[in-house]
Structure prediction request, 238 residues.
Amino acid sequence: MAGTGYPVLGMALVVAASAGTVTAQELNTLSKKEKKQGWTLLFDGETTNGWHTYLKDEAGAAWTVSEGALAFDPEAGEGGDLVTDGEYENYELSLEWKISEGGNSGVIFNVHEDPEYGATYVTGPEMQVLDNEKAHDNKEDDHLAGSLYDMVAVGRDVANPAGEWNQARLRLKDAHLTLWLNGTKTADVTIGSEEWKELLAASKFKDWEHFATYLKGRIALQDHGNKVWYRNIKIREL
Prediction:
């Protein structure tokens, strides 16, 4: 992948002291460096603690923990978008995702949870999660994996194929939003700027009164009716 000089967290590599071999950092943990930098885990690798289904008290049965990942299976029970218990404003988010063949999901942020808004995407912009090859919603470049959905386009070759892990990163500071997928910068725009207004006016959200109006909110993992997995979900408040 083309790089931007921005470090990728995800599966950081360490040297095993016993054999001198290189091994992957344990899933859903923080290195000493990450702890020093202020990162915290949003997913403990074992439970759905810290998350609940949008407008519900707890996580729906379709969201479970499988092999160290927060997994969604539409056949496992009640679904709905999963959101953090906490709200965040200025932060960096790092996570890994894997999508099923033909699958669609997303990381939706700045979600204002209120019964007035029937879905997370009414208020929150989305970083797309998609099988770029076989998903139905793969016809537009601003609908591909890693894009700022329906606003900023991204190349088809940025994402790994269905069934393989992808590293996503989101940074939001004083309304300045930057997205990365697998080390490639996929969006860089300031919410509310003239550039943003032009992108918004050309999108499906142009007449959505409350879309992207909250700069503080919950982070959501989208239930789009397809199997999807998330792990190494980490956040650092700025």
Notes: DSSP finds two helices and 15 strands in the chain. The domain at 13-237 is CATH 2.60.120.560 (Jelly Rolls).
